[in-house]
Amino acid sequence: MYWNGFKGDLWKSEINVRDFIQENYSPYVEGASFLAGPTSATTTLSSQVSSLLELERERNGVYDIDRKTISTITSHKPGYINADLEKIVGLQTDAPLKRALFPKCSLPSLEDALEHNGYSLDADIKEIYSKYIKTHNDGVNAVYTPEIRRACESGLITGLPENYGRGRHIGDYRRIALYGVDYLVSQKETEFSLLEPGEMTPEIIQQREELADQIKALKEFRCMCASYGIDVSKPAKNAQEAVQFVYFGILAAAKQQDGVTTSLGRTSTFLDIYIERDLKNNVITETEAQELIDHFLMKLRLFRFLRSPEYNELFSGDPTWITESLGGMGVDGRTLVTKTSFRYLHTLYNLGIGPEPNLTILWSERLPKAWKEYCTKVAIDTSSIQFENDDLMRPEFGDDYAISGCVGALELGKATQYFGARINLPKALLYAINGGRDEKTGIQVTPRFEPITSEYLDFDEVMERFLEIQKWLAGVYVQAVNIIHYMHDKYAYESFQMSLHDLNIKRYETFGIAGLSIAVDSLMAIKNAKVKVIRNSAGIAVDFEISGSYIPFGNSNEATDRTAADLTRTFYQFISKHKMHRNAKPTMSILTITSNIVYGKMTGATPCGRPSDAPFSPGANPMNGRDINGSVASLTSVSEIPYGCACDGISYTFAIAPAALGRETDKRQTNLVSLLDGYFTPTGGQHLNVNVFDKSLLEDAMEHPEMYPHLTIRVSGYAVNFTKLTREQQLDVISRTVNESI
Amino acid sequence: MKKEPITGKIHSFESFGTVDGPGVRFVVFMQGCAFRCLYCHNPDTFDLNHAAYELTPLEVLQKMQKFMPYYKHGGITVSGGEPLLQPQFVKELFRICKAEGIHTAIDTAGCYLGDDVKEALNHTDLVLLDVKCIDPTIHLALTRKPLQPTLDFANYLSEQRIPTWIRYVLVPGFTDSDDLIERHAQFVSGLTNVTKVEILPFHKMGSIKYETLGLEYALKETIPPSEERIENAKNIYRNKGIEVN
Q1: pTM value?
Q2: Given CA atoms A325, A330, A335, A340 in this order, what sign does their dihedral have?
Q3: Cα torsion at A84, A86, A89, A92 (round to 10°)?
Q4: Tell me, what CATH number does B95's domain have?
């Protein structure tokens, strides 16, 4: 009865969601005219949510905290916004926007977060986690080397998940709806019984312990759902159950872990199969189908984690990265766009604009025309969605991958990532010049070596030392990330998310570079212009004078672009020669999140002419104002960065005034389609954030935030409420907006 | 004797041009212009001898070729400045672009019509022609150049049936009276080749450039036209059956 009308056999004999989708989905190539507006229940709920969000803003961004209860899958009683109206139910705690406690990653960070909000940590919890239970952060601190500590404290390595959930896993939540928990448990039990080899090696023991934890988590999950009066033991019978089960999946993940990202996966085409079946059997109407999706995504918008001020500085605006990947093409050439892909985007009209979930369009030139036009319309209207190159990622990851966290791809249910943030490449370059001493503090961070003492920088001399520094840094960096993930596995294992994976998964360990364009420009300046060093009394290079000229990154200059590609490749090679945690495959991203501001503040003047403390460009973007040949030239430079060395994503954030995109609304859409088609060729760029607004609007929003509660913009890797950014970040965004050309 | 290659004096490039012809375009802003339009927002292109680049047509094409995936529904536009100050360059650039199947457009005030210009037009798919004012006296005051050459140019395009968009900058106090627009529309409706009229509302975004160049900006006090006045202008053309936006 659960699978009535569904075709195919393979997915019935093994866990294989992709096969189920391929056998049963209905590609949709027509337009958006079928979409339905919000129901009165949706409108009522939306306005209740709006008032809650208003209160949250008034309370400095935190509505409420449950200070007594440690969050687990089953820690909280059911919570509702308005139980009578909600078609899809479930909250992280017993009330909307109330944040839960996650002490198992780091006690000091939790205390910091509470104190910042005017509370202190409950005495019992403090005693338990300081006396009896070791946290992930305790583990990390116990084994960090002095070198790692110095590299982190100086800002050479930043943003490591040392004291909060590491995120990046995506449970294949679709499995719950398709198979029901009973079957998932039985599969895990079978796997467990098969894991009885003669030798109990540490690897096998770890795997058995993890499986046992996964089975326990699935059972807890069943209890959590039962507390809402919903039985998830068996497969979903209809669309409402399918949406509900998938939602419960990600909800449980967010109750077990405060991961830095909590991606949803790629659910729209899967759920469309259930919706289509119900529509065909007259079980629901289009309006009801849309209502299910509206209520589902409305819930995702309410996800909250309690974060420390230090975290908020790096990841501004309270993002949760509930990333959902939409569209794309199948390997058989059919589009994976369905009507429900449209329904997901349509929530931005039915619920109003909002930054979460992090809606991501998997783009291919071969996508249906009507879908492309709808996507660009939504991007222009809302500045809330991001685009990624399906034709680039599909050959690497197949056609059932999803974006994990910010911009990197992951095979659903078959792979996971060990998130490792990023290094500050311009700072590394300054260390090469300064003999490994920090240009701001004078502290010797790297092993001691001779600084450069010449008045003018010599390219070969700088390059030789820069490579040495990178080699050293890559070693320290891999050590740190390996330690963090060893300890996460040990003290904060995400058993629920991992229960929705295959037994033998692929693992990626993800590293990253911030400030690539500054490093490139600095090297080009040293090579092609003359760069004079200004040193302070301690002999540290604190400023540079450039005479002559160089062509900066972002102008599609062959030599400059090659330098960017070489730097990326070289650092990746330095990383790759090290041993990874659990034999993971190393990958890299060129991404900053909003930390481009913080990185800027931590970094002295650079040989490219950037003054001390000035912001980095976001992600892989060229430096602001240096790309003088227009956006296509800029994008072309970025697409020269080799994806093979940066499979975790190469982020470009694009902001343009409506008038600069074209004279008329329909032309703006087709011009944006041309831009995306041009960028996302099979060998082209990987990621594009699209922001369309006038500078004057942002300036007004900065002065009158109360008038723009829903104004959303894309920053490197996610969407964010503009008014939740710091003033520095707001100014940075404004300065990057392209107005009409000359 | 080896022939010197033709080079063009170029101010700058815009690789994502969205407002100078159909689709996404590679826009080459040429250096040099004899007009001195009071509202010009590119005063830094006036002087032919201050070019940032001096490149051959082939070098320009090579710059553009990397970006071709973006221009499937667009092409190349030469703008300026006044591109037809350098007709030999435009002719050669467009000739090699056409050989590559690239759509070519030229944004001009149409004040030159020599043999080189005519040859350049043979390789041109679309002309964006500025007819800045239909009244000869106001035209002279506004641009410091006579109107007649532009009218001759327009008539030539019409005879040759070269597809043309007419551009009209709506400047309050100079070109926005109903009478002037009416007469302008009347002239345009007599042409055989015009597929569209674009009304470009006056704006002051170029005023900073005047300060930088130490030039006097004559329209400091002029305010951009209201939505009503823009719509009014558009209706005058629509009433004559001309497509306008």
Answers
A1: 0.96
A2: negative
A3: -90
A4: 3.20.20.70
